[in-house]
């Protein structure tokens, strides 16, 4: 029955017409981004300040996410590239252990996909609580509890993704023969196969929804802070913000300072949703339509793998002081100066009247 829905499940060579270019680009981008992120984290954690400040909860969470993404890339992508290089499928790379290699590859794929999503949820919760509920955050969110997130996520994900080894669900080889994953098209197989596929995709969908809601809550808190500062500026005027030359002082925290956080959260929400929902859709489509495997399945998996690429760039590199300085110089400072100039012209016109 699997052959009817998965024509590449038993093949020992890579399907013709496919190239390793996309896989190589994804692996290179993910490896470079995560290594750079680890370097930035190590630099911030081993700074020259004495006494050295205690790391934040966000620092601990982002370290766990970066290590998870890097391990996932290093365990999965070299196998795919080796399959393309030898023109052999995962079942054909090690003929005597082809089935075991496919099973292990599928387990690693499902494990790191779910583990990264759970850690992203932990980071979204931390951001939402720190901005929207600061008193609760200061009282209950401690560094020790933050350090327990990675072990807890690993334990839960290990138990959940190992269910196919116990007979609940199954792993199959997908075309072009370079990757294995959860069987998403059930056909007439056991209801356990369909049940695990739907359970995995439903859990991913719930995690995506929770992350989006947390990011929207954090964006709402940032927007409220922005509005308060704008009202405060209008009440007090811009005189206290002007420097000796009549220009707005950059040392004063202007109302647009929160906009970079707001735009960053919006970008994170949109990209994460776009990269995760294709796999959820394909899992539901395969479970209830019983259609043959399609090229969209491989595309959905590649979208899912993009998450581990954009994670380090968004969460770490775009949060560094260099990026903030560039962002404020190009976007925030001109907007601030234009608002200050318009306000000054309006005051001059009112005084002349």
Task: List the topology elements.
Elements: H1 2-5, H2 21-45, H3 57-86, H4 90-93, H5 98-132, H6 134-140, H7 143-147, H8 149-161, E1 171-174, E2 179-182, H9 191-236, H10 259-289, H11 295-315, H12 321-352
Antiparallel strand pairs: 1-2
Structure, briefly:
The chain is mostly helical and about 350 residues long. It is built from twelve helices and two strands, in the order H-H-H-H-H-H-H-H-E-E-H-H-H-H. The protein has a two-stranded antiparallel sheet with strand order 1-2.
Which regions are unreliable across 5 or more consecutive residues at pLDDT < 50? 238-257
Order of helices and strands: HHHHHHHHEEHHHH
Biggest β-sheet description: 2 strands, antiparallel
CATH topology: Rhopdopsin 7-helix transmembrane proteins
What level of helicity do the residues show? Answer: over 70%
Judging by the overall fold, what is the CATH architecture? Up-down Bundle
Supply the number of helical segments.
12
Q: Give the C-alpha Rg.
A: 25 Å
Q: Which percent range describes the beta-strand content?
A: under 5%
Q: Supply the CATH class.
A: Mainly Alpha
Count structural domains: 1
What's the average pLDDT?
75
* Terminal residue distance: 85 Å
Which secondary-structure class do the elements indicate? mainly alpha
Number of strands: 2
CATH homology superfamily name: Rhodopsin 7-helix transmembrane proteins
- Tell me, briefly, the overall form: elongated
GO molecular function: prostaglandin D receptor activity
Keywords: Cell membrane, Disulfide bond, G-protein coupled receptor, Glycoprotein, Membrane, Receptor, Transducer, Transmembrane, Transmembrane helix
Membrane topology: Multi-pass membrane protein
Pfam family, one: 7tm_1
């Amino acid at each position: 029955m699997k052959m009817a829905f998965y024509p590449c499940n038993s093949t020992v060579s890579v399907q013709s017409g496919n190239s390793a270019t996309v896989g190589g680009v994804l692996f290179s981008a993910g490896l470079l981004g995560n290594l750079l992120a680890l370097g930035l984290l190590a630099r911030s954690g081993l700074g020259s300040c004495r006494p050295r400040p205690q790391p934040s909860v966000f620092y601990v969470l982002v370290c766990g996410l970066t290590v998870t993404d890097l391990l996932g890339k290093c365990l999965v992508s070299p196998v795919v590239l080796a399959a393309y290089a030898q023109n052999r499928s995962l079942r054909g790379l090690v003929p005597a252990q082809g089935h075991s290699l496919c099973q292990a590859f599928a387990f690693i794929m499902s494990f790191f996909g779910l583990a990264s999503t759970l850690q992203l949820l932990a980071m979204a919760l931390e951001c939402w609580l720190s901005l929207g509920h600061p008193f609760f955050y200061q009282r209950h969110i401690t560094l020790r509890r933050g350090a327990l997130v990675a072990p807890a996520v690993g334990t839960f994900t290990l138990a959940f993704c190992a269910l196919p080894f116990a007979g609940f669900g199954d792993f199959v080889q997908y075309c072009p023969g370079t990757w294995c994953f959860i069987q998403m098209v059930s056909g007439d197989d056991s209801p356990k196969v369909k049940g695990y596929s739907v359970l995995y995709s439903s859990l991913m969908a719930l995690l995506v929804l929770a992350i989006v809601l947390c990011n929207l809550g954090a964006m709402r808190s940032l927007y409220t802070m922005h509005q308060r500062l704008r009202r405060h500026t209008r009440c007090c005027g811009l005189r206290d913000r002007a420097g000796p030359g009549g220009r707005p002082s950059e040392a004063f925290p202007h109302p647009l300072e929160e906009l970079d956080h707001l735009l960053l959260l919006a970008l994170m929400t949109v990209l994460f949703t776009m990269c995760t929902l294709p796999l959820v859709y394909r899992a539901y489509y395969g479970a209830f339509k019983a259609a043959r495997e399609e090229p969209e399945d491989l595309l959905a998996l590649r979208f899912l793998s993009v998450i581990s690429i954009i994670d380090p760039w968004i969460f770490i590199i775009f949060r560094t002081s260099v990026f903030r300085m560039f962002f404020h110089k190009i976007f925030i400072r001109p907007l601030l100066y234009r608002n200050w100039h318009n306000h000054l012209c309006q005051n001059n016109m009112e005084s002349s009247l």
